[in-house]
Design goal:
Blueprint lengths: L7 E4 L7 H4 L4 E6 H8 L8 E6 L7 H14 L3 E6 L1 H15 L5 H6 L9 E6 L11 E5 L5 E5 L7 E4 L9 H20 L5 H22 L3 H21 L3 H13 L3 H17 L3 H10 L3 H12 L12 H9 L13 H13 L6
Parallel strand pairs: 1-8, 2-3, 2-4, 4-5, 5-8
Antiparallel strand pairs: 6-7
The protein binds fe (ii) ion.
């Protein structure tokens, strides 16, 4: 067994100010304009700095990544700093691969990534509380067929991660909810995979506790609660980097790609249904109930009710066989802890279509 994580993690209020001590040589900062405006006032960098800013970042396509890679290559930095949510950091991670290997093909990236860090080190400053990508080994991209693909490699774990809770205080309510549901998915899935990693499990359980018991107050604007959710997101990211994810994320890849639904919203929607399926077959799921005082599926369903989070998605009936194929072939399925059949996945899809947890 092993456990991999950034070699240095800075966290807590004001921790982004340490950035000036962490960069070397020519530094390229990749961020959103508004986010960077907030961060710029907190730090003064002595190194030569160039910026790649966008007014709005979206979950990246292969073309978006290649375009960003060209910008990175034209600046040839020795430190890349990605400041933002999952879309920014994932875009930067994937473009970094092309900076290190300009001739690499997407199929190579999807199968195996060679050693990075020949040209630059990579620092992630995560400014939402959901993806955990600042500490994780993953990045998500939409391929040319419109399918979301997870790229996973230990090489993609940033060298340094910064989780400054001051940076998440201004998140809009829907971002707090959707990214929180993504993080709750990371934590519960990492705990229930078939990867028996004691460090990952410990972090995952603490993450479930921090996110589940604080997200409602965080949504209401309570700063301490928001900081706890941010820490929960960080721990969940470290957990799933090592213990992996399973069915809710596989479903989010297929459904999110087809119906253009944000990642966190789709993970959150799938989560209680998959937990209900798992509770029927696997002790790992049932043991989460000790923390919630009831089944995890029921507890998270009720939490989502209180947050006004949707339970139902209009899945077209004719899409279901194809979706089942995509989900069963997703690489994450091998980490699901029990045997899962096409019929069971289809049942979950029909239940989401009806918005009825008891159909599982
Ligand atoms: Fe996720």
């Amino acid at each position: 067994m092993q456990f991999n994580t950034p070699r240095n993690i800075r966290f807590g209020r004001g921790s982004v100010e340490k950035l000036k001590n962490l960069v070397d040589g020519k530094t390229l900062i990749i961020s959103g304009e508004n986010v960077w405006k907030n961060v710029k006032e907190l730090i003064s960098l002595d190194s030569p700095v160039v910026y790649v800013k966008r007014r709005r970042w979206k979950e990246p396509s292969e073309d978006d990544v290649k375009f960003l890679a060209q910008e990175i290559i034209s600046h040839s930095p020795s430190t890349i700093v990605a400041v933002g949510g999952g879309s920014v950091i994932d875009s930067a991670k994937l473009a970094w691969i092309f900076y290190e290997y300009p001739d690499i093909q997407w199929e190579d990236i999807y199968s195996k990534i060679s050693k990075l860090r020949r040209n630059t080190k990579f620092i992630a400053v995560e400014t939402t509380s959901g993806t955990g990508t600042g500490v994780s080994a993953a990045a998500v991209v939409t391929d040319e067929k419109g399918k979301k693909r997870g790229v996973v490699s230990l090489e993609l774990i940033p060298d340094v991660a910064i989780y400054d809770s001051n940076l998440v205080m201004g998140m809009p309510e829907n971002v707090v909810i959707y990214s929180g549901m993504d993080a709750l998915g990371h934590a519960t899935e990492a705990y229930t995979t078939n990867v028996d990693n004691i460090i990952g499990d410990t972090l995952a359980l603490k993450a479930v506790e921090l996110i589940y018991f604080n997200i409602e107050d965080s949504v209401k604007g309570d700063e301490n609660a928001r900081e706890k959710v941010h820490h929960g997101n960080m721990l969940a990211g470290m957990a799933f980097a090592n213990s992996r994810l399973h069915l809710p994320h596989a479903m989010a890849h297929a459904l999110g790609g087809r119906y253009k639904i944000e990642h966190g919203k789709m993970v959150g929607m799938a989560l209680p249904y998959v937990l209900r399926l798992g509770e029927k077959c696997c002790e790992r799921f049932a043991s989460l109930a000790r923390m919630f005082g009831k089944g995890a599926s029921q507890a998270i369903w009720e939490l989502q009710d209180r947050l006004g989070f949707p339970h139902r998605l209009r899945i077209k009936e004719e899409d279901i066989p194809l979706l089942v194929e995509e989900i069963i072939n997703d690489r994450l399925l091998k980490y699901y802890p029990c045997k899962v059949s096409k019929d069971e996945i289809s049942k979950v899809l029909y239940a989401i279509r009806e918005g009825d947890l008891d159909e599982i």
